[in-house]
């Protein structure tokens, strides 16, 4: 018996023709496949039903559909500001280099932001910056310890007899309080 040679599957990449690209761009702009088809192709001798059918068929073609989806994603991504853009905006407000247009008696005038806006922008920038300061780290440890202590004091459940009991002993509460005092600067144990 002879073995049949396997046919290699061709992986041709379907490319967008100029007219398909024009159709897709118009479709993205107006959202109507029939009108987009009319603007991209010659439809003088076509019936309205045929135009509609061809518009739907063209819209479903893989290269056209992929192009439309990719462009729509790009448009959506452009609407959402990136982290760098937000930081640059806040920096511009804080430094006063970003100007605000206000209406005055002499007409529109560009002025720098007021001090309150500049201080608020500086605070927002500081929230987004990593802190390597030992004092800040100590304050964070203290806040975490206090949160753990408060949580342990309220962590109660019912036993089988219906009475409320604390799950964490008094001894662990005392240890947490000692830890908070040591962080604050060596208070009395």
Short description:
The chain is mainly alpha-helical. 60% of the residues lie in helices and 8% in strands. The protein has three domains: 18-79, Arc Repressor Mutant, subunit A; 83-129, no CATH class; 133-174, no CATH class.
Polypeptide structure, described:
This protein is mainly alpha-helical and 189 residues long. The protein folds into three domains: 18-79, Arc Repressor Mutant, subunit A (Orthogonal Bundle); 83-129, no CATH class; 133-174, no CATH class. Helix content is 60%, strand content 8%. It is built from eight helices and four strands. The protein has helices at residues 18-30, 33-40, 48-60, 62-79, 83-95, 115-127, 134-154, 170-184; strands at residues 100-104, 107-111, 156-158, 164-166. The chain has a two-stranded antiparallel sheet with strand order 1-2. Strands 3-4 form a two-stranded antiparallel ribbon. A hairpin with a 2-residue loop joins strand 1 (100-104) and strand 2 (107-111). It is elongated and about 90 Å long. 7% of the residues are buried. The mean pLDDT is 80.
Summarize the topology.
Blueprint: H1 18-30, H2 33-40, H3 48-60, H4 62-79, H5 83-95, E1 100-104, E2 107-111, H6 115-127, H7 134-154, E3 156-158, E4 164-166, H8 170-184
Helix pairs in contact: 1-2, 1-4, 2-3, 5-6, 7-8
- CATH C-level class of the largest domain is Mainly Alpha
Secondary-structure class: mainly alpha
The percent of residues in helical segments reads 55-70%
CATH architecture of the largest domain: Orthogonal Bundle
**Overall average residue pLDDT:** 80
The DSSP helix count reads: 8
Major sheet summary line: 2 strands, antiparallel
Protein name: Prophage Lp2 protein 34
InterPro entries: Terminase_Gp1_N_sf, Terminase_ssu
Region (Disordered): 146-189
Biased composition (Basic and acidic residues): 153-162
């Amino acid at each position: 018996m002879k073995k049949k040679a396997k046919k290699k599957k061709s992986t041709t990449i379907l490319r967008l023709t100029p007219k398909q690209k024009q159709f897709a761009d118009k479709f993205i702009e107006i959202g109507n496949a029939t009108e987009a088809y009319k603007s991209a192709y010659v439809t003088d001798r076509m019936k309205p039903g045929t135009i509609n059918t061809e518009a739907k068929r063209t819209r479903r073609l893989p290269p056209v559909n992929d192009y439309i989806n990719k462009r729509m994603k790009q448009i959506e991504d452009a609407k959402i500001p990136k982290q760098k853009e937000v930081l640059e905006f806040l920096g511009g407000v804080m430094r006063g280099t970003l100007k605000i247009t206000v209406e005055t008696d002499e007409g529109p005038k560009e002025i720098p932001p007021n001090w309150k806006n500049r201080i608020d922008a500086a605070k927002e920038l500081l929230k987004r910056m990593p802190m390597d300061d030992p004092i800040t780290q100590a304050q964070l440890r203290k806040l975490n310890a206090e949160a753990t202590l408060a949580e342990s004091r309220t962590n109660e459940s019912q036993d089988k007899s219906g009475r409320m009991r604390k799950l964490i002993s008094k001894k662990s509460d005392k240890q947490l309080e000692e830890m908070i005092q040591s962080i604050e600067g060596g208070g009395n144990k």
